[in-house]
Amino acid sequence: MKEKTLQKISAAVFLGYIGVFSVASLLHEKHSFSENENRALSVSPSFSLSSLVSGKFDESFETWFSDQFAFRDAWIETKAALKKASLAIENNDVYFGKDGKLIRRFAAYPPKTLDQNISAVNRFLNDNDLKGNVLLVPTAADMDRNAKPGGAWDFDQSALLDQIEKEMPDVNFIRIDDELKQAENAYFRTDHHWNADGAYLGYAAICEEVLGKDPEKFTLTQVSDSFKGTMYSRSGAFWTEGEPIYRIEADHPDPVRVTYDDTQETDSLYSEKRLNEKDQYMYYLDGNHPLTRIDTDNGKGNTALVIKDSYAHILMPYLAREYEHIIMADLRYWRSPASQLVEDREHTDVYIIYSLDNFAQDPNPVLLR
Fold first, then answer.
1. Buried b (16+ CB within 10 A) or exposed e, 169-200
2. Three-state DSSP class for 249?
3. pLDDT tens, 203-213?
């Protein structure tokens, strides 16, 4: 008898908990965006008889409820903390690295996509009689080996670069993996991008291998100490403290004009308003745009066409010292032929600048033409 009573009490407590939690989730204030996860949340689904019969309403309601349940951020953080306490080395493919570093895993990619991207770059350069400079930046998952937890496994990215370099025999393939391995601080702690110090290594390599000159000196001025990047959002490690963002300034800067998508013009490489948002990496060149034009008053008469992902953004304050004109095209959004952006082949340097993991997985470079 006592056992049945105990079972009834346990069931009542459990059902009561579920009921209270469900009601709280339905009544609490709904949000359209999660700051911690840095993504839009599902909106309340519209009901119709056809959606109910087809099952789409149930699916949409489940997605909406999972995005809008009460104390969502606390639950996500608790899950991540419990995994870390149980000695798990990652959560959502993000390593809990040493010294609070959050490192994105790179342990798989679709070989077909990589092969297609390599072929697309070779074809684009050959068809348009262009000499290309390819900089594929390896990530912290392999370069920052001292920060990775024990038992972590990822691709040998230097070996992958060896493979890609062999399949791009006619390009100037820029390697900085040795420099990144030796660097003490080349990547953000909470984000997947390289930081200002890491990007300087890329700039120095370009100066040596493309421009034939010594790199200039720059001053880093801190503009924020609260950057919490994509790995912070993805890992659920919401206890991690923010980190600095720096303005990169030459000793004698040239005036610049930046035009986004041939419509919005500004006189700065930096977007101050982005420092008030979750993704402060957008401080550099205002985040992702299909087409970005940078014009300087340095009078050098040369142009750089940069086919890129967001790894290139933090590199541009350095590169803007070396070119009078820079044209940046992001193939995730830019659908017109990139070849139309090259007006003067004699004075234009073409760059393909991506993070290595993104180049191996992003299907959009095949659109290069």
1. eebbbbbbbebbbebeebbbbbbbbbbbebbb
2. strand
3. 999 999 999 99
